[in-house]
Amino acid sequence: MSIYNDIERVLVSQDEIAAICERLGKQITADYQGKERPILLGLLKGCVPFMSDLSKHIDLPIEIEYMDVSSYHGNITSSGDVKIRKDMNTSVMDRDILIAEDIVDTGKTLDTIVKLLRHRGAKSVEVVTLLDKPAGRVIPFTPKYIGTVVPKEFVVGYGLDYNELYRNIPYVGVLKPEIYKK
Ligand code: PRP
Ligand code: MN
Ligand code: MG
């Protein structure tokens, strides 16, 4: 039994992910020059591998925070009900916030969290996402920093799960449909 048997094909390879992290890290380093302790805010759990690798390419005095947010609850479609399971530990008032995400699909998660952080008085709120799935959008949302665009297929790996599995695969792949249809 191997978890890799459940993957139909590789969509974003380990080499491609490494190149994306380097490119986005450099861009963020340039854009956030001179800002006072920006906060890189990861949305758990999907953000973990991407945020870890991306942050090593950001050469700035940043703070790292996490918020545990969920809307899929183990399903393949978004419930649209974005739940904050654990909030961040610091005030965002007058702070520059860069949210790190694994994927923007319907846009509901980021629409909810960006509005919340603005409401809480953040000075700026931007988003860096490894994957963008524009064909999945239900609410208009445009992330500032995008790793790569993916088609409307169910993707897993590198933080992305199906029913809490496959997050530990080191690349992004398409899950065999028979896995979620059974
Ligand atoms: C997934 C993914 C994003 C969000 C994107 O999280 O990690 O956070 O959904 O989808 P959306 O644009 O349709 O809102 P999920 O709710 O599955 O929680 P997880 O990160 O703990 O897996
Ligand atoms: Mn998530
Ligand atoms: Mg999930």
Automatic annotation (TrEMBL):
The keyword Protease does not apply. It catalyses: IMP + diphosphate = hypoxanthine + 5-phospho-alpha-D-ribose 1-diphosphate; GMP + diphosphate = guanine + 5-phospho-alpha-D-ribose 1-diphosphate. Its main location: cytoplasm. Keywords: Cytoplasm, Glycosyltransferase, Magnesium, Metal-binding, Nucleotide-binding, Purine salvage, Transferase. SUPFAM superfamilies: PRTase-like (SSF53271). It comes from Paracholeplasma manati. Its EC number is 2.4.2.8. It is found in: Cytoplasm. The gene is hpt. Residues 14-162 form the Phosphoribosyltransferase domain. One of its GO terms (molecular function) is glycosyltransferase activity. It is an enzyme of class 2 (transferase). The keyword Magnesium applies. Pathway: Purine metabolism; IMP biosynthesis via salvage pathway; IMP from hypoxanthine: step 1/1; Purine metabolism; GMP biosynthesis via salvage pathway; GMP from guanine: step 1/1. It holds the Pfam family Pribosyltran. This is Hypoxanthine phosphoribosyltransferase.
